[in-house]
Amino acid sequence: MQKSLDASFGALPQIAADVLDRLRVNRPAVHCITNNVAQAFTANILLSVGATPSMTISPDEIAAFVECCDALLVNLGTCDAERRKAIDMAVTAAQKTTSKPWVLDPVLIDRSPSRAAFARDLAGRGPAVVRLNHDEFRVLGGEGATPQTVEAYARDKALVVALSGASDLIADGTRRVTVSNGHPLMARVTAMGCAASALTAACLAVEPDTGRASAAALLIFGVAGEIAAETAHGPGSFAVAVIDALFNLDAATLRQRAKVM
Amino acid sequence: MQKSLDASFGALPQIAADVLDRLRVNRPAVHCITNNVAQAFTANILLSVGATPSMTISPDEIAAFVECCDALLVNLGTCDAERRKAIDMAVTAAQKTTSKPWVLDPVLIDRSPSRAAFARDLAGRGPAVVRLNHDEFRVLGGEGATPQTVEAYARDKALVVALSGASDLIADGTRRVTVSNGHPLMARVTAMGCAASALTAACLAVEPDTGRASAAALLIFGVAGEIAAETAHGPGSFAVAVIDALFNLDAATLRQRAKVM
Amino acid sequence: MQKSLDASFGALPQIAADVLDRLRVNRPAVHCITNNVAQAFTANILLSVGATPSMTISPDEIAAFVECCDALLVNLGTCDAERRKAIDMAVTAAQKTTSKPWVLDPVLIDRSPSRAAFARDLAGRGPAVVRLNHDEFRVLGGEGATPQTVEAYARDKALVVALSGASDLIADGTRRVTVSNGHPLMARVTAMGCAASALTAACLAVEPDTGRASAAALLIFGVAGEIAAETAHGPGSFAVAVIDALFNLDAATLRQRAKVM
Q: Which residues contact B222 (CB under 8 A, 6 or more apart)?
C-alpha cells in the first residue's frame, strides 16, 4: 500500500539535484531558532548551499524575521524560557500562512521530561516535518513507538517524519523512503543533526512537496558526509569538509552515490 | 575637495602593516558584545592578529570589562533585551573616556524595525566607526541613503562609515578610500562581517586616526580573504584559511595585493 | 614529602592511554555549563574522544541533565544571572552523590570582581578539580597566591588544582606533577582552556583518582596540541587539527611525546 517516495516520484537523486539548484538560485531565507551550540555550524551549512540564515530569538523581533523568511527551523536544544517564548511567537507567526513551512527538531527530549512535553505540544501545531533520532522518536511517538510506527505517527499528525540513524527513514504516512548515505563521523561532530534539520527547512522553502523536500535534504546531507569522510583526518577536518562538499555538490555525484530504497 | 585617505596619508598598505605590527606587539583587549552566532569566529579572528577578546554581557560585569579593554565592539545581531541592556551599560562606560573607541555594527537592521531604531539611537552616542553593508546603510542613513550619501552621513555624525560590499568604502566626511580586496566566499561564511567589525575595533585600539584604523582593518581582512581563497575548497576550508592568513600576513603581501583607490 | 603523581602511580602516559581507551569505550555523558563562545568547540573536543556532551542551562531541565550525566563542567565565562542560577542548581544536583565529579573553570575572574567572588564560593562546594591559568589562580588563591602555594590551596580545599601555563602543574595536596606538552598556538585559539577543562571532566567520569584523571587530561590535550601544530598553517587549521589529533591519539604516541616531571 505504501509507496516508496523514490518509486512514486522518479529518481530521488534528480529531485535532490533540482532542489539544490533551486537553493542556489533562490537563496531562501531560513529563520532558525536553534541552540547556541549549533548556531554557527548551522548558519555555515545553510550558507554553503545558498540559503540565508537568521537566528534572533528576541521577542520584539522574531515575528518580523519569521514574516520575512521562507522557512523556519524550531530546534529544542538548550531550550530555556526565553527560547520557548520565542518558539511560541515564531510558530504563531508561521501559522498565519500555509506557505511558511517549519521543521521541528526535538533535540534530546529523551533527557528532559519538560522538553518532551513541549515537543509534543509543538508537534500538534502544524510542523511540515519532524526530524529526530531513534531515542527522540521513542519519546515523541508515545508508548510503543518504534521505527515501525513512524508512518502511523506521520499520518496521524499529518506531517513528515525524518528519522535519522545509520539509515534515514523519511515517511509522510502514505509514502516512505530510506536513505542509507552518511558516515559514522557525522556522530562525532556537534550539531550535525541540527544542521540536517536546518537544511530540511531550506529545502522546504524551494520544494512544496514536503516528503520530497525532506528526503532530498537528507540525501544531500548524507552524500556530502560521505564525500567529506574521504579526505578527513578526523572529526575536525570532517566538519570543515562537509561544508565544502555541500558547496561543491552536483547532480552527477548525487546520482552516483545515492543509496535510496 | 575630499581627499583619498590613501593619498592624504601615504600608502595605506604600509599603514595597515604598521597597525598589524602594533596589534601583534600591544595585544589590545577588545570587548565584544556580539551575537551568539559570531562569538567563536570573532574571538578567533581577534586572537589570530594578537588581540585579546572578551565577550561577557552580564550586567554586573560588563562595566568592569569595558573599563579594562582598549576598544569595544557593539554588534546588534540576535539582539535581545539582555543584550540591549548590556550595550547601553557598555556604551555608557566607553563614553566616560575619549580613549575607548567603539565600533557599531548594525547587523540586519533592514529586517527589524525595532533594531533599526536602536541602531539610530546608538549612532548618536559617539561610535568611532559604523561598519555595515549597503542594505543596512539604506536603513541607518535614512530616506534616500545611498553610497553617495555616506560621506555626508559620516560628517554629520562625526564618525567613520565603513561600508562593506564588493568594494569597501571608508569615509569620515573629509576623506574617503575604496578598498577592493576580498573574495565572494566571504559572503558564504557566517560572521565574516561581524569579524571585520571586531578587527576594526582592534585596529582602533592601536591607531588613533579612526579613518586610517578602519581602512587598515578592511584592507587587512580583504587581503586575508584573497589569500584564503587560493587554497580553499569551499566555504568551510575558507573560514579556516582566513584565520591562518591573518596570522601569517606581512607587509610585503599587503603592499603587493592592496587594491586601494 | 610530596610525591610526583608520575612516580607514585607509574607512567602517566600509560595512565592517560588507559583513560583515553575508557573514554572511547564508555562514552561518558558530560554536562557542560560553559560560555557561549566555547560551546561548539568544547562539544567537538568531547565528541572527538568519545564523550557525549550536553549543554542546557534551562532551570527546569538542568537537574535532569546533571542527574543523567557522568561528570559536570562549570565554566564561568560570559557568566550572566541565568547561568549563575543554572550553576547553583547543577552543583546542588551534583552534590547529591559522590559519584558525580565536577570541574570548576573560573574563566577571567581576574577581570571581574563579582565573578571572582562567585568562583570563591563555588570552590568551597566540592569541585573535584579547579582548572585555571596563573592570573586566575592569583585571584582565586587569595593574597600571596603563587604557583608555590598551589599545593597548600589544593590541600586546604581538598581538591585538585590544574594550573595551566607554558607547563601545566597538577597538584592535589600530597602529590604533584608537571606536564610540559602543548604548543604556543593553543593560546591563539579561543576556548582551548575551556575545552581542556571539559576534557578533564570527561576523564573524571572514567577515572576515580581525580589527580590521575586531571593529569591524564592535560597530557592528552597537550600532546594533541603538539601533533596539531606539526601540520597547522596558523591558528585556524590548528584548532581543526587538535580535534583530529585527539580522535587519532594512541598509547604509543602518548608514551613517545610525554614530557612529565
A: B168, B179, B180, B181, B182
Mutate to test the interface with B, among C80, C192, C238, C244 (most CBs of B within 10 A): C80
Distance from CA of B261 to the nearest CA of A (A): 31
Residue B41 C-alpha from the chain's centroid: 14
The three grid cell numbers given for residue A110, joined into one nine-digit string: 529523551
Mutation to test the C interface, candidates B231, B243, B246, B248, most C Cβ within 10 Å: B243
How many Cα atoms occupy the beta-carbon half-sphere of B60 within 13 Å? 13
Angle between helical axes of C235-248 and B235-248 (0-180°, round to 10):
120
Considering only the beta carbons, identify the residue of B37, B78, B233 that sits closest to A244.
B233
Give residue B171's identity as a one-letter amino acid code: A
pTM for the predicted model, two decimal places = 0.96
Contacts of C252 (CB under 8 A, 6+ apart): none
Q: How many CB atoms lie within 10 A of CB C20?
A: 24
3-state secondary structure of C210: helix
| Alpha-carbon distances of A111 from A78, A108, A136, A149, B67, rounded to whole Å | 12, 5, 9, 21, 42
Burial label, A157 (beta-carbon count in 10 A; 0-12, 13-18, 19+):
middle
B260, B177 contact by CB (below 8 A): yes
pLDDT tens, residue order, chain A (261 aa): 345 555 555 589 999 999 999 999 999 999 999 999 999 999 999 999 999 999 998 888 899 999 999 999 999 987 788 889 999 999 999 998 777 999 999 999 998 888 999 999 999 999 999 999 999 999 999 888 998 999 999 999 999 999 999 999 999 989 999 999 999 999 999 999 999 999 999 999 999 999 999 999 999 999 999 999 999 999 999 999 999 999 999 999 999 999 998
B76: closest CA among B127, B143, B148?
Answer: B127
Helix (H, G, I), strand (E, B) or coil at A204: helix
**Which residues make beta-bridge pairs with B31?**
B54, B72
Cell of B124: 548618536
Interface contact A44-B240, CB threshold 8 A:
no
Q: How many inter-chain contacts (A to C, CB under 8 Å) are there?
A: 91
So what's the ipTM on this one? Answer: 0.94
Helices (H), A98-234: 113-123, 134-140, 150-157, 192-206, 210-231
A236 contacts C247? CB cut-off 8 A: yes
Closest residue on chain C to B242 (Cα) = C236
Chain B closest CA to C83's CA: distance in Å? 10
Q: Single out the residue of A178, A174, A145, A147 nearest to residue A160, CA to CA.
A: A174
Residues in chain A with CB shorter than 8 Å from the CB of B81 are 58-60
Query: What does the alpha-carbon distance between residue C190 and residue B42 come to, in Å, rounded to a whole number?
Result: 9
CB distance A235–C242 less than 8 Å? no
Closest-CA residue to B71 (of B123, B30, B122)? B30
Out of C81, C111, C234, the one facing B248 most closely (by C-beta) is C234
Report residue A72 as a C-alpha cell: 523556519
Using alpha carbons, list the distances in angstroms from residue B79 to A224, B115, B194, B221.
33, 8, 14, 25
CA torsion sign for C61, C63, C68, C69 is positive
Strands B129-133 and C52-54: unpaired
- Sequence letter at residue B68: C
- One-letter amino acid at A203 equals C
Helices (H), C102-234: 113-123, 134-140, 150-157, 192-206, 210-231
Touching chains, A (3+ CB pairs < 8 A): B, C
Residue linked to cell 552518511 = A182
Phi, psi of A207 (to 5 degrees): -140, 110
Instruction: Provide CB contacts within 8 A for B244, sequence distance 6+.
Output: B48, B228, C232, C233, C234, C235, C236, C237
In a mutagenesis test of the C interface, which of B60, B78, B189 is the best target, namely the one with the most C β-carbons within 10 Å?
A: B60
Q: Do the chains contact at A79 and C57, CB–CB below 8 Å?
A: no
